[in-house]
Amino acid sequence: MMEQEQRDQLLIRRAAELYAAGADRRDKALWTQVLAENIVIEGPGFSIEGREANLRSIDALEQMFRATVHRVHQVVATIKGDRATGETYSTADHLLKDSDELLVWSIRYQDEWRRAGAAWQFTRRRLIVDWEERRPVIRVGAA
């Protein structure tokens, strides 16, 4: 693998990590860095077009969950010039708002990226939930 391709692979992974951190921190500035203006994010029962509309998804996370933790496991990307396609494997823990349950998703994102200066941005993310499980939350220590 050539040095530029290695750097691009790391920057693509970095975009996925910033997306996850932005979701967990409810940080629209992080998402603004990694979402192209014309981003389309789709998943079971939804399709949202445009950066501004997708930034409002962070507000929805805030309303639905007390907290979330997204983990990026692997990113497999094929780069062709200033474009890339691939798949990002992830798990996401969602602490439900009105119960002491954790909703855990096993996720595969089918992704498309575009080079944006020295970084990479998502132009499309398709969320596939391979399975989900619910677990009770066991509180440790003082809250």
In the residues, how many domains can be counted? 1
Strand residue percentage: over 45%
What is the general shape?
globular
From N to C, what is the helix and strand string? Answer: HHEEHEEEE
Strand order of the largest sheet: 2-1-6-5-4-3
* Helical stretch tally: 3
Structural class designation: alpha+beta
The helicity comes to 25-40%
- For the record, the CATH class is Alpha Beta
Distance between the termini: 48 Å
- Per the CATH scheme, the topology name is Nuclear Transport Factor 2, Chain: A
Average pLDDT, rounded to a whole number, is 95
What is the level-2 CATH architecture name? Roll
DSSP strand tally: 6
Task: Characterise this structure.
- With 143 residues, the protein is of the alpha+beta class.
- It has one domain (3-136): Nuclear Transport Factor 2, Chain: A, CATH 3.10.450.
- The protein is 31% helix and 54% strand.
- Strands 2-1-6-5-4-3 form a 6-stranded mixed sheet.
- Helix 1 packs antiparallel against helix 2 (28-34).
- The model has no long low-confidence stretch (mean pLDDT 95).
Give the topology:
Layout: H1 3-25, H2 28-34, E1 35-43, E2 46-49, H3 51-64, E3 65-80, E4 83-96, E5 101-116, E6 119-136
Parallel strand pairs: 1-6
Antiparallel strand pairs: 1-2, 3-4, 4-5, 5-6
Helix pairs in contact: 1-2
